[in-house]
Design goal:
alpha/beta
């Protein structure tokens, strides 16, 4: 998009684990203010790419730019001010309240040896309101339901007041209603704050519904990118996920993907070993 600042730019990015390639010459661009999703099967490189963007995993080759600046040239404090991460799970070893957990997100913004002030309280309040957890502020984090915990984890990231929010499987382990609730709240933050969002997801349908740009990874390579209809194509998905999938445009315009069930085993028939079964 001409004239729109790129929140993320990768040029021929490669990364390794112990000498084994895990990302292979990936080039992509995410304009500022977009919601985008990284798709692909387990081991495709989605979480590794997020770790590279935060500086937690080194690039073996290529360039990474955040908002026009080389990632390697940014100080840790600058990266922390611009990029926030909401992990799949958060373990809190002490009985912190929701408000205290969300306040942890302000760590990168607080000068050393400085007590939290009005800006801290305002940001924490805004983050809790944005993820609809204000009424939970005095509750112990470890007493919350899975959906409530995930909203608090994302609120903690939002309290950092980032320009780029990275979400690693934000709806995993949640039921359908909580998945929709989480993504609607994230969508609202994206619209209200012009917050750039990049999330990994195994839910192709929700990614297509809420993200205008999809990136499909397969064994460390970027094999497709663009609008959902350009990426979610049956021949490509069959090759990447190694199973039969059907893509359909619903009456309301939604794009849906569903697996095709293999033939049923006949009663009394011998069941072949897993390695011999075909999908």
């Amino acid at each position: 998009m001409v004239g729109v600042t790129a929140a993320v730019e990768l040029e021929r990015l490669s990364a390794q684990y112990g000498g084994t390639p895990c990302l292979r010459e990936i080039s992509l661009r995410i304009p500022e203010g977009e919601m985008a999703a990284l798709l692909g099967p387990n081991g495709a490189g989605k979480s590794t790419l997020l770790r590279v963007l935060t500086g937690r995993h080194p690039a073996a080759a290529g360039r990474v730019r955040l908002f026009g600046h080389d990632l390697s040239a940014l100080r840790p404090s600058e990266r922390a001010a611009w990029v926030a991460v909401a992990p799949q799970e958060l373990t809190v070893p002490m009985p912190f309240t929701v408000e205290e957990v969300v306040g942890i997100g302000r760590t990168a913004r607080l000068p050393r040896w400085t007590a939290p002030g009005a800006d801290h309280r305002r940001a924490v309040e805004a983050a809790m309101a944005g993820m609809d957890v204000l009424e939970l502020r005095a509750r112990a984090f470890d007493e919350l339901s899975g959906g409530e915990r995930q909203r608090v984890v994302i609120a903690m990231a939002l309290a950092q007041e980032p320009r780029l929010l990275l979400l690693d499987e934000p709806t995993s382990h949640l039921d359908v209603s909580h998945r929709l609730e989480i993504l609607r709240l994230i969508e609202r933050m994206n619209a209200e704050r012009r917050l750039t969002v990049l999330m990994t997801s195994h839910d192709l349908n929700l990614a297509a519904e809420y993200c205008g740009r999809l990136f499909l990874l397969d064994r460390g390579r970027l094999v497709a990118e663009g609008a959902p209809e350009a990426v979610l194509r049956e021949p490509l998905l069959r090759e990447v996920y190694r199973c039969e999938l059907r893509v359909r445009r619903e009456e309301d315009g939604a794009l849906t993907v569903r697996p095709v069930r293999p033939p049923r085993f006949a009663a009394g028939a011998a069941v072949p070993p897993l390695g011999e079964r075909k999908t």
